[in-house]
Amino acid sequence: MSTAGNETEAPLLECEKRWVFLILMAVGGYLGAFTFTMRGGVFCNAQTANMVLLSIAIGSGMWSKALYYLIPISAYLGGTIISELLPSPLKRFHFLRWDTLLVGLEAIVVIILGFIPDSWPYQITHVTVNFICSMQYNTFRQAEHIPMATTFCTNHIRQIGIYFSKWIKHREIRSHKLRFLNHIYMLLSFVAGAVVSTMLCHLVGTKAVWGAAVLLLILFVDLCRADLTKEKDLMDLKPSGH
User: For the segment 6-33, what is each residue's pLDDT rounded down to a tens digit?
Assistant: First the structure.
């Protein structure tokens, strides 16, 4: 039996729906714009920049700086490890999915970030955002059986190019156009989140981070409803990509 057939037959969980990923993409863009605008001009959604800066620091003999970059990188790594280890034990309770609990945890963390005084070191926010972005990226992997990244855009830009080319060459294959459009929607959602975040940062300062919490709380309520009602008997079913 083919993999494609299995994907088609598998029940689509609430946490795999496209609108869920659109919100998560908006949150990713929102937090990226927030940390850059209000927390020292740093992006915390992924680790490529930190790895480059770590390498530059080592190559320049700046050992204290090199050691510092290990902190956000380790936070990101830690988030990945925790998001791999926690889901299995939590399944035994048959209460809420890890995906749902993670969104609730993110909302709480983001609310707390809004209370951090401007005088405190920016690194507190950097490490925290690194940690939650890592867990989000590793937990939400496929939107309606299409692999997705919810905290950065590089792969979406790549996929837009790939599936636009495939669509041009094979117009009769509808799935190429659908994937092309899906990745465009994700990219636009990320940009919209970043634009709104930047505007609110200029208006209300560090409290702007609570805008991401609003999005996460809306998503949390919906995922809770699904876990406790229509998907109550599907707790043992893993989302696609896991």
Answer: 444 668 999 999 999 999 999 999 999 9
Buried-state track 10-25, b at ≥16 Cβ within 10 A, e below 16: eeebbbbeeebbbbbb
Find, among 126, 132, 151, the residue nearest to 141 by Cα. Answer: 151
Distance between CA atoms of residues 158 and 133, nearest Å: 21
- Which three-class secondary structure string do you get for 15-64? HHCHHHHHHHHHHHHHHHHHHHHHCCCCCCCCCHHHHHHHHHHHHCCCHH
CB 240 within 8 A of CB 7: yes
Amino acid symbol at 42: V
Q: Cα(74)–Cα(62) distance, rounded to whole angstroms?
A: 19
Provide the β-strand partners of residue 147.
Answer: 142
Per-residue model confidence as pLDDT tens digits over 41-95: 888 888 888 899 899 999 999 999 899 889 999 999 999 999 999 888 887 777 8
What is the bridge-based pairing of β-strands 142-143 and 146-147?
antiparallel
